[in-house]
Write a structure and sequence with these properties.
The structure holds 2 protein chains of 2 kinds. Chain A is of the alpha/beta class. Chain A has one domain: FAD/NAD(P)-binding domain. Chain A is globular. Chain A starts with a strand and ends in a 10-residue tail after the last helix. The longest helix of chain B is centred in the middle third of the chain and has 20 residues. Chain B is globular. Chain B has a domain of 161 residues. Helices cover 39% and strands 1% of the residues of chain B. Chain B contains 9 helices and 1 strand. By secondary structure, chain B is an all-alpha fold. Classes of the chains: A alpha/beta, B mainly alpha. The interface between A and B is large, with 108 and 93 residues. Strand 11 of chain A pairs antiparallel with strand 1 of chain B.
C-alpha cells in the first residue's frame, strides 16, 4: 500500500554536499524543497564533539559514519569472466551516510581540474594521436571557463585555505603555476606547515619543481562564509578523513550550509527516508517523483516537479538502473550509457624513514595540510613516448599519526612478533609519507550494472561493479612513483620504502572514496546520461549530481569539481529551466 | 509546465505523516537539544564470547603476534578483553556487514567472503585445532612458541587448509583485530594504561596542537589521554 504525499516543487534524494548545495540554491530562489536522507540527523558540535571523535576503533574500523552494508552494498569483480561477489565489508572506499554524507568525513583537499581535463579526448588526440585501444575517454561537454565562477563560489563557501597560482592569467609566486586561471585569490591563506611538508617542498624545489600548499578545507583562520556561517581555526588534531570535525574547522555541509538552510521555511528535511526508485510519468518522459520507505516499512510516494538525485555515485547509478531510466551500458557492444565509464583513482606512495633524532610528530596534522607538486598532472608535461595519457599530483600531506592506521615499517620487517613490534616502535614518529594521486582513464571493460544474484534489504538487485586498472594506469603510476622516489631520496632519510601500484585492483585496502562515472555527462545522449547542466537526456525534470558525471577521473580529488558542477546546475535551474522547463540542451 | 513559486504553508504537508515520520522531519531551524552528546560505549570487563578452550588459543596466539618486550604483550594490554567485547557485540554478529548468501570463495581482490566475524573466529579456532591434532597430535597451546610462530606464518600465507573457513581470511581478520585492540582507545578494553601510545609517543585524544605546529623536528612529549577520560582507571 503506497501512500501518496502532497506534491512538492523539488525533491532531493541524498543530503550530502550536492544535496545541500542544491537545496540552498533552490530555496534561495523561493522554491519549496524537500530533501530525503537515508541516514539520521547529526548535530556537529554535540554529536561530533572533539571529546569523542578521536577514536579509531569506533569511527575508522567500525564504520560509524559510513554506509551500512547490511542495507545495501554492491558486488565486485575485476572483469566480466569472473563472478561478482558482494562487498561484505567496506575497504577500498568509504561512502558516507547521515546528514552531510561523506562530506562529513573527508580530508578537505579541494581542487579544480585542469582546463585540458574537460577536453581529455580531443586534447590528447590532437597532441598525441588516437587513444589506446579500449579507452573510452570522452570530452565533458563543459569547459573550465564555464565552471570557473562555480569553483570560486564553492571555495568561498568553504573558506578554502590556499595560495593562487594563476589569477586571470597572471602566474603567482608560491601557488600552482599549472592551474587554470582563477578569478581571485583563495578566501583564506594557506595553513601553516609542519616539518614534513617543508622537507618535501625543499627537496622538490632542489629538483627544479614548483611545490605549493595544497588547497585545504581546513581553516587557517577564523572565517565567516557568504551564508553567514562561522568557522573556527583548525587545531591540527589529525582526525579529518574518516572522522567528523566538531570544532567547525573543516568545511562540511553541516559547517557551511545547513545552519543557514535550516532556517528557511521553504525547506524540509526528512531523515531515515530510503529512496527505492524514481517514478516515471505514464508517457515515460518525466519523473513523477520518488518512492521511499521508512524504518517502519511504510512506503511513501513523494511527487515533485523537479527530481534531483544527489546520492553517492553508486546509488545514483543504482537508482537509474532499478528505475529503468536510460539504456544500460553493454561492454560487449559499447552501446548504452547508464553505468558506462566507471573510474576510480590510482594512488601509490613512498615512505621515507629518518633516524631517531628527527621527530616528525605525525599526529600534528590536518586532512589537507601539505605541499604538492603538480608538474606531472594532466597534460602539464609532454607524454610523447611514455605510453599513457593523464597523470597526477605528488604530495606530502601530513594528515595524521593515528597509531592503528599509520604505523609504517621498513622493507624486510617481520609480519608480526617481536621484530615487527620493535620496528613499529622505532619507526613511528620518524617517517614521512609521499603520495601520488593519479588519474584513471575510462575503459570499455570498466562499468556498473545490476547483479544477477545478490539483493539488498529491500529486495532490489545489488549494483555490480566491474573494474580493473589498465596499462594506462600502471604506466602512469610507475612514472609518477619514479618521480616521487627521486624526491624521497632527496629528502635525506635513512631509507625509503616504495608502495607501487601492482596487480589487479583490489576492493580490500583503502585507496580513496573517489568513485566516478556511470551517469556521465557529455554533449549528446548517445554517449552520455546527462547534459552539461546534469539534466537527464531522458527525463527533462530529472537532474543527477555528484562524481557520476565524470566521463573519466582526472588526477585530483573530486569534491571541488563535484560542487562546482552542482552550482552550475543550480544556476541553470534558477536562470533558465524555471522560466522555460524543458531540455536545456537539444539532443 | 510552468513552475509555480508558491510558498510552503508551514507544516501543512506534515498532516499526511505518521508520528514516527514527523519525528524525523526537520524544518524551520536546527533541531538542537540541550545536553545531547554521543559518547563512546565503554567496554564490559566481564563480556565473554570465547569458550575457555577458545580463550586459551586466543591468549596464546595474540602473545605470539605481539609479545612482551620493554612494553606489554597483547594479553597484558587487554587485547583478549577487547576481542571478547568486539566479538560478543555488533562486530561479532556482523550487524553492519552484508551477510546474505550465497557464500562463495572469491578472488583475493573481492575481499571478505566469510560469514559474520563471530562465526569465523569460532569455526577457525576449531578447525585449527583439528588440523594440528591430525598433523602433530597437539593443540595450538601445546606447541612451543617457535612452533606457534611457524603455524601462524603458515596461516597468514594461506598454506593451512582449514575444513570450514578460509585460513588466510581468519588470520587477516584476527591480526587486524589484535592490532586494533593493542593500538585502539582503552575505552574499548584494549591498550590498557595506553601502553602502546606511550610506546609510540602518540598523545591520544588531544585535539589542539596549534602551539606545536612549528615544532621543526624537536621531540614533543605529551601524557596520552583517552576519549573516556579518567574514569576508565576503575574499569581496568
Amino acid at each position: 500500500m503506497v501512500k501518496i504525499l502532497p506534491r512538492r516543487e523539488v525533491v532531493i534524494v541524498g543530503f550530502g554536499w550536492t544535496g545541500a548545495i542544491l537545496a540552498e540554491q533552490l530555496t534561495a530562489e523561493g522554491l519549496d524543497v524537500v530533501a530525503l536522507e537515508r541516514g539520521v540527523w547529526r548535530d556537529t558540535s554535540t554529536e561530533y564533539a572533539v571529546t569523542n571523535i578521536q577514536d579509531e576503533v569506533r569511527y575508522r574500523y567500525r564504520d560509524e559514519l559510513f554506509e551500512d552494508l547490511s542495507r545495501e552494498t554492491l558486488t565486485f569483480r575485476n572483469d566480466i569472466s569472473q563472478t561478482a561477489l558482494p562487498m561484505r565489508m567496506l575497504g577500498s572506499f568509504l561512502p558516507g551516510t547521515n546528514v552531510g554524507g561523506a562530506g562529513v568525513h573527508w580530508n578537505g583537499q579541494t581542487w579544480r581540474f585542469l582546463p585540458s581535463d574537460f577536453v581529455a579526448k580531443s586534447h590528447n588526440e590532437e597532441r598525441y594521436g588516437p587513444l589506446a585501444d579500449g579507452m573510452t575517454v570522452q570530452d565533458w561537454g563543459i569547459t573550465y571557463d564555464e565552471l570557473e565562477p562555480h569553483y570560486t563560489r564553492f571555495e568561498d563557501l568553504c573558506g578554502i585555505s590556499g595560495k593562487a597560482g594563476n589569477i586571470n592569467g597572471q602566474i603567482q609566486e608560491g601557488g600552482n603555476p599549472f592551474e587554470g586561471w582563477r578569478s581571485k585569490e583563495y578566501p583564506n591563506p594557506p595553513l601553516e606547515m609542519v616539518l614534513a611538508p617543508k622537507m618535501f617542498a625543499k627537496a622538490a624545489t632542489e629538483l627544479g619543481y614548483k611545490p605549493f600548499p595544497g588547497p585545504a578545507a581546513n581553516m587557517s583562520q577564523a572565517y565567516t562564509n557568504p551564508l553567514g556561517v562561522q568557522m573556527a581555526p583548525c587545531t591540527y588534531c589529525g582526525f579529518c578523513e574518516k572522522y567528523a570535525c566538531g570544532n567547525y574547522s573543516k568545511a562540511t555541509p553541516a559547517t557551511t550550509i545547513i545552519p543557514a538552510l535550516m532556517q528557511r521555511e521553504n525547506f524540509e528535511l526528512r531523515t531515515e527516508a530510503m529512496v527505492l526508485r524514481v517514478i516515471k510519468s505514464p508517457d515515460g518522459k518525466r519523473a513523477e517523483g520518488v518512492e521511499y520507505i521508512t524504518p517502519e516499512g511504510e512506503i511513501l510516494h513523494q511527487p515533485a516537479d523537479i527530481v534531483i538525485l544527489a546520492a553517492y555515485i553508486t546509488h545514483n547509478v543504482h537508482l537509474m538502473l532499478t528505475s529503468g531510466i536510460g539504456t544500460p551500458y553493454d561492454p560487449r557492444t559499447g552501446q548504452g550509457v547508464v553505468g558506462k565509464n566507471y573510474a576510480y583513482q590510482c594512488v601509490s606512495g613512498v615512505i621515507v624513514f629518518f633516524d631517531e633524532d628527527t621527530h616528525i610528530n605525525p599526529y600534528v596534522g590536518a586532512g589537507a595540510l601539505g605541499m604538492v607538486v603538480d608538474n606531472f598532472n594532466g597534460d602539464n608535461f609532454d607524454h610523447t613516448g611514455l605510453g599513457f595519457i593523464g597523470g597526477g599530483y605528488i604530495g606530502q600531506w601530513q594528515t595524521n599519526g593515528r597509531p592503528m592506521e599509520s604505523h609504517p615499517v621498513p622493507e624486510g620487517t617481520p609480519k608480526f612478533g617481536a621484530g615487527w613490534k620493535k620496528a613499529v616502535r622505532e619507526s613511528y614518529g620518524h617517517t614521512v609519507g609521499i603520495g601520488t594521486h593519479g588519474a584513471v582513464m575510462s575503459h570499455r571493460g570498466n562499468y556498473l550494472d545490476l547483479d544477477p544474484t545478490y539483493t539488498d534489504a529491500y529486495g532490489r538487485p545489488l549494483l555490480r561493479m566491474t573494474f580493473d586498472f589498465t596499462d594506462n594506469e600502471f604506466n602512469m603510476s610507475n612514472y609518477l612513483t619514479d618521480r616521487a622516489v627521486e624526491i624521497a631520496k632527496a629528502m635525506g632519510g635513512r631509507e625509503i620504502r616504495e608502495g607501487r601500484r601492482k596487480g589487479h585492483y583490489s576492493i580490500v585496502p583503502y585507496q580513496s572514496t573517489h568513485n566516478t562515472g556511470g551517469t556521465i555527462m557529455g554533449s549528446n545522449p548517445r554517449e552520455s546520461v546527462i547534459n552539461k547542466y546534469q539534466q537527464s537526456w531522458d527525463l527533462e525534470n530529472l537532474f543527477l549530481t555528484g562524481a557520476g558525471a565524470f566521463p573519466q577521473n582526472p588526477g585530483y580529488n573530486p569534491t571541488g569539481t563535484v560542487a562546482a558542477l552542482a552550482y552550475h546546475t543550480a544556476d541553470a535551474i534558477r536562470n533558465i529551466y524555471l522560466k522555460s522547463p524543458g531540455p536545456l540542451v537539444q539532443a | 509546465m510552468p513552475m509555480t513559486r508558491r510558498a510552503l504553508l508551514a507544516g501543512a504537508s506534515l498532516l499526511a505523516f505518521s508520528t514516527a515520520v514527523q519525528a524525523r522531519t526537520y524544518s524551520g531551524g536546527i533541531p538542537w537539544k540541550a545536553a545531547r552528546s554521543n559518547p563512546p560505549e565503554i567496554f564490559d570487563p566481564e563480556a565473554r564470547f570465547f569458550t575457555p578452550e577458545e580463550r586459551a588459543f586466543i591468549s596464546a596466539a595474540v602473545d605470539r603476534l605481539i609479545p612482551a618486550d620493554d612494553f606489554p604483550s597483547a594479553t597484558e594490554s587487554g587485547v583478549v578483553t577487547f576481542l571478547e567485547n568486539q566479538l560478543s557485540g555488533a562486530y561479532g554478529r556482523g550487524d553492519i556487514y552484508y551477510m546474505k548468501g550465497p557464500f562463495r570463495k572469491g578472488e583475493p581482490t573481492q575481499g571478505y567472503q566469510s560469514q559474520a566475524p563471530g562465526i569465523l573466529y569460532r569455526q577457525a579456532i576449531a578447525d585449527i585445532n583439528t588440523l594440528l591434532k591430525s598433523e602433530q597430535n597437539k593443540s595450538f597451546t601445546d606447541l612451543s612458541p617457535d612452533e606457534q610462530d611457524t603455524f601462524l606464518m603458515r596461516l597468514s600465507e594461506g598454506k593451512a587448509e582449514l575444513e570450514h573457513v578460509d585460513g588466510k581470511t581468519f588470520f587477516d581478520t584476527f591480526w587486524q583485530d589484535t592490532q586494533l585492540g593493542f593500538f585502539g582507545d582503552p575505552v574499548h578494553g584494549g591498550n590498557r594504561d595506553m601502553a602502546s601510545w606511550k610506546m609510540l609517543g602518540f598523545p591520544g585524544a588531544r585535539y589542539d596542537y596549534r602551539e606545536y605546529v612549528n615544532h621543526d623536528g624537536r621531540k614533543l612529549s605529551f601524557e596520552p589521554v583517552s576519549v573516556a577520560g579518567n574514569f576508565m582507571k576503575e574499569a581496568h
